[in-house]
Design goal:
Blueprint lengths: L1 H10 L2 H42 L7 H4 L5 H19 L3 H14 L1
Helix pairs in contact: 2-5
Length: 108
């Protein structure tokens, strides 16, 4: 009986959903990692530019606000987490997507 149920699950397309979800997740994870590296590079250049301008006496930088110690960073992080949870939660092949995403991040 259990064997018949397992065959029924596979014939309903669950394996296909997991496979497609895994491939989509891997591509998304790989792309996200590449974009994150580019963004991190430009953020680093921006911070170096701010530090240099501060040393030259051109500007005064509130570094604690940039680090998110004033609470603004927590709101951004919470909204990003909520967005990612809603995306993964609404995709019927979320398990395959999440596994593929993790693989894409690791290999990207």
């Amino acid at each position: 009986m259990a064997e018949t149920e397992a065959i029924g699950l596979l014939s309903d397309g669950i394996a296909t959903d997991l496979g497609i979800g895994g491939i989509a997740g891997a591509i998304t994870g790989w792309t996200a990692k590449k974009i994150a590296k580019i963004v991190a590079f430009f953020v680093g250049i921006g911070i170096l530019g701010l530090k240099w301008l501060e040393q030259q006496g051109v500007i005064i930088v509130n570094w604690s606000a940039l680090r998110g110690e004033d609470g603004a960073g927590a709101a951004v992080q919470e909204s990003a987490t909520t967005f990612m949870e809603s995306v993964i939660g609404t995709i019927p092949m979320g398990a395959g997507f999440a596994g593929g995403f993790a693989l894409g991040i690791k290999k990207g």
